[in-house]
Amino acid sequence: MGSNTVTNKQTEVQRIVDALSKAIAQHRLRPGTRLIEAQIVDALKANRNHVQSALQRLALQRIVTIEPNRGALVSQPTAKEARDVFAARRAIEAAIVESITPDAMRQNRQRIANHMRNERKATSASDRRDIVRELSEFHLMLGEICGNAVLAEILGNLMVRSSLIVALYQRNDHPACASDEHEQIITALEHGDHRVAIKVMLEHLDELEAQLALEELAEPEVDLKQILGDL
Ligand SMILES: [Zn+2]
């Protein structure tokens, strides 16, 4: 196989990974949905080997679960995993906010302004998918602006997993993020006030986690001896 073929394969697998990640992040594919290879092949006009590689890559990222004999399905993170993802987001997003300079904010002024306008437009209308997309886009945008590709890549994975978590555990039907907290983070970063930006970001993530019903389903404590003895 020539190196060109390898590159083409990588690009094609990434295209499928991106399409599935996006559909999952936007709640078009919900946790537990079966991912049937033949359907993905048809829908994305892709080849079966590439689809299989894409599903394996998503499984390594914990976005997809591959079950022996049952095939692939969209992952259903446990409450423990949900808490771990939020703990990781606090660490990663604090580091992202920390590394955004006022200069980077100036260079990205137009992009940020466009995003904030779209976000306000989405939250004032009520298409839930638009809202979910715009609100998570804010966090991804900060990851890109910070200029650290590793932080951005880790965040990309955490954001897709967060979407799964919100789809499974959100208490109410209101969108997770509050847009005014986003505005406060932007304002603080424009002034180079990292202390405030980090503080608002951490409070914001705490708030998002608090909206989830993450009570572990306790194993019922039964006294088998007593129950069976009473029969
Ligand atoms: Zn947010």
Automatic annotation (TrEMBL):
PROSITE patterns: HTH_GNTR. Pfam families: FCD, GntR. Transmembrane segments: none annotated. The keyword Transit peptide does not apply. GO terms for molecular function: DNA binding; DNA-binding transcription factor activity. The keyword Transcription applies. Residues 10-77 form the HTH gntR-type domain. It comes from the Bacteria. InterPro entries: GntR_C, TF_FadR/GntR_C, Tscrpt_reg_HTH_GntR, WH-like_DNA-bd_sf, WH_DNA-bd_sf. This is GntR family transcriptional regulator. It comes from Stutzerimonas zhaodongensis.
